[in-house]
Design brief:
mainly beta; 4-stranded antiparallel β-sheet; 11 strands; 0% helix; globular
Length: 122
Amino acid sequence: QVQLVESGGGLVQAGASLRLSCAASGRSSSTYAMGWFRQAPGKEREFVAAMWWSGGSTYYADSVKGRFTISRDNAKNMVYLQMNSLKPEDTAVYYCAADARGGRYEYEYRYWGQGTQVTVSS
């Protein structure tokens, strides 16, 4: 019973930055691993980034490495995705996910937010 709510999406031009936020609440949420996934129109959902509860271990998809940064504030039960140098290819609905373990596959997460739209124009 974990609830996740994403925010921060919007319409930006290529090269701009956005910071997505995910507010987590519920049982054991403060110690859960957190992940970000995205789904573009006509494509399957793909992994973006993950961070484990301590904040000392992260993993990024090659497509976003060096541009995106995942972080969390456990005191506020918040996780963030800082997105820099955005490209049109980053256009997608972005979802945050949580579970006790986490990873880079959808099946490793039990709890999901509703998603927030990110649109990057050229």
